[in-house]
Amino acid sequence: MVVIFYGGNILVGKAINDLPPFTIAFFRLFIALLVLLPIGWKSAWHYRSVFVTHRWPFLMMTLSGITFFNTFIYGALQYTTATNVSVLETVIPVVTVILSVFLLKEKLRNVQWIGIVLSFFGAIWVVLDGRILALTSMNWNIGDGIMVGAIFSWSIYSICVKKYMHLFPAYGSLLVMTGISVLVLLPVVGIEWMIRGVPSFNGAVHIASLFYLGIFPSFIALLFFNRAVDILGPSKASVFLNFLPVVTVIGAYFWLGETITTMKIIGAVLVICGVFITTQFGDKMQEGEEFDTIPS
Question: Domain named EamA: which ranges (predicted)?
Answer without folding.
Answer: 2-127, 142-279
